[in-house]
Design a protein that fits this description.
The protein has about 30 residues and is mostly helical. It has one domain (about 1-30). It has 3 helices and no strands. It starts with a helix and ends with a helix. The relative contact order is 0.19. The mean pLDDT is about 55.
Length: about 30
């Protein structure tokens, strides 16, 4: 599972905001 996160390199951890946040672009408020 960690391979997915490393490959995308967008979020350090998928649990940060959930799988949906990783798949979709991060909104301005989500970045904060």
């Amino acid at each position: 599972m960690s391979s997915d996160v490393a490959g995308r390199g967008r979020l350090p951890r998928r649990r940060a905001g959930g799988p949906r946040v990783v798949v979709r672009p991060l909104p301005a408020r989500a970045r904060r």
